[in-house]
């Protein structure tokens, strides 16, 4: 995407709006630190020599971030050198270590996306012994070789602190990590991350690790193309998050999708939209659905972002929008068209069947398998058992088969007709994968040029390498035992 210097100022402007909004709801945030986990990616160059890098990498490397004025409301635990380290493992290690050293000063926890915060928790589960040893001895682990990281962390690890190390060890060595976030950082007041759209499926995991004691806050709406707006009610329920778009970010237009969000949802991505179908910001209607179109200062002209939004209300006279889903269809075998929201909703219902067995759906993705006739939907699920004093009840095949049919029962009319009447779609399949598979999937996409900051687990897999990785980690597979209910 094209970017100009002034874009950095607009992003900084939006970031600077967040704390005044938060301060209306949670006071005294200037009396402690924020443990936000930020990452950069190594940049490339175009053939003509222009730098090409992820939008957040561009921001973190800019003077707007590196030369920012001291601000008590944005006092980060992570040193800039750790954030700017391109080795994500070394960066993660140092940022978590800094957050643990300052555990009694941390008032806010967060990352750009909820998935990144959960990845950090997984990293902490594997490395807390080494982190405690660093704090106990006052010396950074030898695995951290980046000179800038070592230099910045030497100030934070200025002396041994065995008492702090013992506190952290006592918490991390407990059999259950339920509520771990609020225990390790007892003064934390909320968790900040993107929790809308595909990130909504991480809400139960974050609530588990915080024991529901820390509000989940989604402060802003942005993309690589442009930053869009802010959440004026950050402490609202995650399901009610709505954003007020800022007209100084770009020129907003909207493609009407009707009152139920279905009209035009199957339009060809490449086809143009007649000008008369576009409406501007002041003419959107309450309750209606739209696809977002932007014209940016950097040169994008009537660019279709691909996000489906619903108008949910107004702040004064400014419309507020709820993110619904990406416009693109996620899965399709025949006439069926399953989008991201439908898939997420059906899995949300189905995963409740795991709760009696003390099991948690950690991550999922999907694939339209047409290698056999009829083709069928495949869901890759990674499940973990919540550790407790009692031994977890193992999942048997009947439970997973019931999950399969529960997903199908929640999919739309057309899908159920294809399954039950037309027989053009085969029984849905759930493939259980080994723990850590989705971290390996993330590593694969990052190694191919993705950004750790902006990575989102794809809800539909099309890459042959990604499918090979997932299938190599399958432990068991289960199919729907019957057709879903369908009434003509």
List keywords for this structure.
single chain; 488 residues; eight-stranded antiparallel β-sheet; four-stranded parallel β-sheet
Can you put this structure into words, describing what you see?
The protein has 488 residues and is an alpha+beta fold. Helix content is 33%, strand content 22%. Strand 7 (220-222) and strand 8 (227-230) form a beta hairpin. Helix 5 (88-101) packs across helix 6 (114-137), helix 6 crosses helix 8 and helix 14 packs antiparallel against helix 15. Residues 243-326 form the GH3 middle domain. Residues 341-464 form the GH3 C-terminal domain.
Brief characterization of the structure:
The chain is 33% helix and 22% strand.
SSE topology:
Elements: H1 5-23, E1 33-37, E2 44-45, E3 51-52, H2 55-61, H3 63-66, H4 80-83, H5 88-101, E4 106-113, H6 114-137, H7 147-156, H8 162-172, H9 180-184, E5 190-194, H10 203-210, E6 216-217, E7 220-222, E8 227-230, E9 243-245, E10 251-256, E11 279-280, E12 289-295, E13 303-315, E14 318-326, E15 329-331, E16 338-339, H11 340-350, E17 359-369, E18 376-385, H12 397-410, H13 413-422, E19 429-433, H14 437-447, H15 464-472, E20 474-479
Parallel strand pairs: 1-4, 4-5, 5-6, 18-19
Antiparallel strand pairs: 2-3, 7-8, 8-9, 9-14, 10-11, 10-12, 12-13, 13-14, 15-16, 17-18, 19-20
